[in-house]
Specification:
By secondary structure, the protein is mainly α. The protein folds into two domains: about 200 residues, Growth Hormone, Chain: A, CATH 1.20.1250.20; about 230 residues, MFS general substrate transporter like domains (Growth Hormone, Chain: A). It is about 80% helix and about 0% strand. The protein contains 21 helices and no strands. α8 crosses α17. The longest helix has about 35 residues. The protein is globular, with a radius of gyration of 22 Å. The two termini are about 20 Å apart.
């Protein structure tokens, strides 16, 4: 009850400087932890576990598809379950994360031979993702719970995104170097498993920091009976379906969000092909990764100021346009690596801005859904942020591989002998195709997502008035 007494009762509780600063700390370590998979999982399977290429492809495809199709249920589980001791959302930040390091490590361990070893790695990937997606969805929902106002939500979303983008900078020093050190302790074969476990443990601590920093912002159900019978934040399956399909702003936001993740994942996967075959200098990729991650962190930091001045929606629309233009310039300048690095770093700066606006936009659609239906489905709606992300991961493999196939890519070809068609094809996957997706995103966000700041403020005021009256 102590937290419940401090929870907001007469309007939103002001966001303290400490809360704003520390809110994204857990997301930072979550991203650092998950980057072990992004950068090293495929390498582990091919070069450490020595799985055949077709086996690696099958495992990756099954894991990513299962993860994508499950991505919509996590918010639903949080909203349908009984609230925990520390609230419906905050409780997930300490109940589940501790399981992740143990499951995640199996994704990078070769146990047995043949089918047994394949199944261990695959189950490690699927189960670890299920375990970490629940606290991730709950933490994203807290932007809506603690924010209280559009400005408050934008501030928390910006803090979360800044920490998230800084993770890329930190990982450049904590990834392979730390894995090499661990290899001297546990052996080369187990170094990535040890790295995954260690960074998973730090992620648990990070979410505990988020748990502490949001104390007092979430209402705690007074009794178990109330939590069971009349929880204000519990939603039925019917309520959650309505929250999606009777909410056109949310539907269009999910579609408009997909290009943002395409611009994150596709260039990341295509970068090595661009620098190896088009730029003819693979070493430049190190500089690009560092510069682009710094730019993304800077973008996330300034996003709150832009959203406050222009609103989150218009910030995303304008940033998409600048990103698309930069991507197209990069494509047509494919022989000039310096120009490409500069403009693709601008693209990633834009990604940081849009990522920071993301939670605030979803939180606004949650306000609209509650105003329209009278049911609080924030957990379900905020959890849907992972839906376009997961399918962008699937799209990454398709876009990159199709682009390379169309230009006759052959890994045996000496990069110095790369044809102009191969150079253009690698740059198309790196810049042109993501730029086209951004143009589609502009159209969707302009004509589909129509929520304005004034509408959200009005809806929230009416929701608060009903709570006071009851």
């Amino acid at each position: 009850m102590a937290e419940n007494e401090t929870a907001r009762q007469n309007g939103p509780k002001p966001i303290t400087k400490a809360t704003r600063f520390w809110y994204g700390f857990g997301d930072c370590w979550f991203t650092i932890m998950s980057n072990v998979e992004t950068f090293f999982w495929n390498f582990f399977m091919t070069n450490v576990a020595m799985f055949a290429t077709e086996v690696v492809t099958t495992i990756s495809l099954i894991a990513s598809m299962v993860d994508a199709f499950l991505s919509w249920i996590y918010g639903g589980i949080i909203n349908a379950a009984k609230p925990g001791k520390w609230g419906r959302y905050r409780s997930w930040l300490i109940m589940v994360p501790w399981i992740v390091p143990f499951l995640y490590a199996f994704q990078f361990l070769k146990i047995g031979e043949g089918t047994v070893s394949y199944v261990v790695v695959l189950l490690g990937a699927i189960l670890s993702h299920i375990a970490w997606n629940l606290p991730y969805a709950a933490n994203a929902t807290l932007v809506s719970v603690a924010g209280g106002t559009p400005e408050g939500r934008a501030a928390l979303a910006s803090s979360r995104a800044t920490w998230n983008q800084l993770a890329g900078v930190f990982f450049s020093y904590l990834g392979l170097p730390l894995a090499t050190v661990l290899g001297g302790v546990v052996g080369e074969v187990n170094r990535f498993g040890a790295l995954a476990f260690l960074l998973g443990v730090v992620m648990v601590f990070g979410y505990w920091v988020n748990f502490r920093s949001t104390k007092g912002y979430e209402e705690i159900e007074a009794t178990e009976e109330l939590a069971e019978k009349s929880s204000k934040t519990k939603s039925s399956a019917k309520d959650m379906v309505k929250a999606l399909f009777q909410n056109p702003h949310l539907c269009f936001l999910i579609l408009g969000d997909f290009p943002k993740y395409i611009i994150k994942f596709v260039p990341a996967a295509a970068a090595i092909y661009y620098f190896r075959y088009a730029a003819q200098n693979q070493g430049l990729m190190v500089s690009y990764v560092l510069i682009s991650n710094i730019c993304a962190a800077l973008g996330a930091f300034v996003a709150a100021f832009l959203a406050k001045k222009f609103t989150a929606r218009w910030t995303v629309v304008g940033t998409y346009a600048a990103m698309a233009a930069s991507a197209f310039i990069s494509y047509f300048s494919y022989l000039n690596a310096g120009v490409v690095i500069f403009f693709m770093s601008i693209v990633q700066l834009g990604y940081g801005i849009c990522y920071a606006c993301n939670s605030a936009l979803y939180a606004d659609t949650a306000v609209y859904a509650q105003w329209k239906s009278g049911v609080d489905s924030r957990g379900w709606i905020m959890g849907l942020q992972t839906f376009p992300l997961k399918f962008a991961v699937v799209g990454r493999a398709l876009i990159l591989n199709i682009s390379l196939m169309l230009v006759g890519f052959d890994a045996k070809v000496d990069p110095a002998q790369a044809t102009d068609a191969l150079k253009k094809g690698a740059t198309a996957a790196f810049a042109l195709i993501p730029g086209i997706f951004l143009c589609l995103g502009i159209v969707i966000m302009l004509f589909g997502y129509r929520l304005t700041r004034e509408m959200v403020v009005q809806y929230q005021a009416e929701i608060d008035a009903k709570k006071t009256a009851n």
